[in-house]
Amino acid sequence: MALEVKNITKRFGGIHALTDVTFRVEEGEVFGLIGPNGAGKTTMFNIITSMFPPTDGEVVFSNKRLTGKKPYEITKEGVCRTFQNIRLFPDMTVLENVTVGEHCRTKSGVFASVFRLKSQKVEEEKIKTKARELLQLVGLGKYEDTFADNLAYGQQRRLEIARALASDPALLLLDEPAAGMNEKETNDLFDLIQKIKKLGITILLIEHDMPLVMRICDRIAVLNFGEKIAQGTPDEIKNDPHVIEAYLGQEEEDELA
Ligand SMILES: Nc1ncnc2c1ncn2[C@@H]1O[C@H](COP(=O)(O)OP(=O)(O)OP(=O)(O)O)[C@@H](O)[C@H]1O
């Protein structure tokens, strides 16, 4: 169940978003993908989940080639993601936000759905039970009837994770899950990622919150201007001169801005 990213290159016209990037995420680990703004991290997620094709290279998960598949086929292969910007249905309840994705996957056919046959009711109950378990897992058990819009920011991000988990991923891609969170919310997120890992789900994490990344990741790859400049354990990455230089460069740019 390893994820193999092999020699991925992506160009958007003249922009080299990724150049010959290779890494491998082992089953059961939390793997961080970090790098300054514009380094190519989200582009990599979009390629893994087939939102668009790479210019070159391929992605393989569990010995199956993902490159060339449709996004829904990637989900079926056990790879799910959350997005940098919250993409919930604000006017639906918390429970509905988790079950909505699942309804597309029910086994009952159209006939059963139209006539609300017993088989379909049983299936719906199963979906709800599973959604409630996921809401418990992410700490939103008592909010199932609340409209998503009325949740606090950190809760909304956890709801997104519950929704991604509803399709039973073997690999979960989290795109900046701590963005905009306060310290308490970030600590809760740390606990949640640990719990998800304990369930045996592999996690690939894009995150700018360095203390969180260093605490939670088993290994980390660093991108800068679309190239992989380092890979290793948190301690190795912290002390890598190329990484320090890349981040210092960004700080200088920020100061100039
Ligand atoms: N659809 C697109 N069309 C054109 N250029 C794009 C597209 N998506 C990304 N890029 C460019 O590719 C480069 C990498 O962007 P990407 O969003 O992957 O970086 P990132 O590391 O995720 O950045 P951030 O940390 O700011 O989210 C940037 O120069 C960006 O402008």
Features:
4-stranded antiparallel sheet; 6-stranded mixed sheet; 257 residues; alpha/beta; binds adenosine-5'-triphosphate; 10 helices; globular
What does this structure look like?
It is built from ten helices and ten strands. Strand 9 and strand 10 (227-232) form a beta hairpin. The chain has 257 residues and is an alpha/beta fold. Strands 6-7-8-3-9-10 form a six-stranded mixed sheet, sandwiched between helices. It has a four-stranded antiparallel sheet with strand order 2-1-4-5, with helices on one face. The chain has helices at residues 41-48, 71-76, 94-103, 110-115, 118-137, 153-165, 183-198, 210-216, 234-238, 241-256, and strands at 3-12, 15-25, 30-34, 56-61, 64-65, 79-81, 171-175, 202-206, 219-224, 227-232. The protein binds adenosine-5'-triphosphate (ATP). Residues 12, 15, 17, 35, 37-43 line the site of adenosine-5'-triphosphate.
Q: Per DSSP, what share of the residues sits in E-state strands of 2 or more residues?
A: 15-25%
**Which regions are unreliable across 5 or more consecutive residues at pLDDT < 50?**
none
Structural class: alpha/beta
Bound molecules: adenosine-5'-triphosphate
The 3D shape can be described as globular
Rg calc: 19 Å
The span between the termini is 43 Å
Q: What is the typical, i.e. mean, pLDDT?
A: 91
How would a crystallographer describe the biggest sheet?
A: 6 strands, mixed
Compute the number of helices: 10
The ordered H/E elements are EEEHEEHEHHHHEHEHEEHH
